[in-house]
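Sanity check

After download, print the first record. It should look like this:
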Amino acid sequence: MRIAVPVAAVVAGLVAGGVILALGGHDPIDAYNSMWEGSLGSSDGIEATLIKACPLVLTGLAVATALRIGLWNIGGEGQLIIGATAATGVGLYATSLPGPLVLPAMIFAGCLAGAMWATIAAIPRALIGLNEIIVTLFLNYIAILLMDHLIFGPWADPKAFGFAYSRSLPDAAVLPVIPGSYVHVGIVIAVLVAVTCWWLMERTPWGFSVRVAGGNARTAEYLGLHISRRMVIVLALSGAIAGLAGAIELTGVTNRLQDGISVNYGYSGVLIAFLARGRLLGVVVAAFLFATLVVGSYALQTTGVAQPIATIIEALIIVFLLAGDAALAFRVHMTRPPHALEPATAGVRS
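Expected structure tokens:
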């Protein structure tokens, strides 16, 4: 069932998308063939999918990590942006650093900024129970406005006309690529972070205490666990992972801070964590499948299919996957009514 239901959900989504394509005057077979070739059917497509999967893995991990203690981090978008902003600041102003230290310093700054941004929501949640969903969501808009202020103002590239982006970063501030490809090593870092988070949460006493605190607060209090402290630490760790996504996207893809550096990666991370059912290693698989859909929809648009239709097809497949995931949570049991279980002579009195 765990294999058949998702496969059936994808097939149903493709069938429904094919109907949309046919209504729009497009050949569904040709359209899906272009999606396959653009995402997994060619070496270029696979590399593009891996690049797109990197920030999705990290933002999905950010959400799934916070879920371990029962918190919903909806602020991955803002934490990613603030991480990219902090990394840009180091790249632009830390000119006295030796070349080999520039990139590690930028990545560290991105992680630290993301952790601090998440802590803004973690502390009031731990102290007075203020809803972390609302706070992290509102912090997204503050991060976006702060980035806009910088790229339109003091960090703006004087050579830019009609575009909002910062001055270019130094040559040392570029992630290396995997030999023989144009995929940056960020995807390797993302997988290593996923494995590390899994080990930390599933194989260490501290991770066990976090799961206990997230599963049953009264039990955690009885055992003497400091729930508030763990809330702050876990949400800060979640923000650091999202901030790392911003630093990697900056140094591996855009190479400068620009408007739209995050294409809803933070919000997509919530969906990916849900598809993975909160499993940390499952996030890697869900993010790769999600990236395949996104890259495939880009390829679909190159064949003349309008962007809204490509987005509808992508959404249909995701909706069917979510419906299939919900179906796995239920089991149908066929039982006979009580009166049918009574012997035929039950109503005959001697």
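If your output differs, re-run the checksum step. Summary of this record's structure: The chain has 13 helices and no strands.
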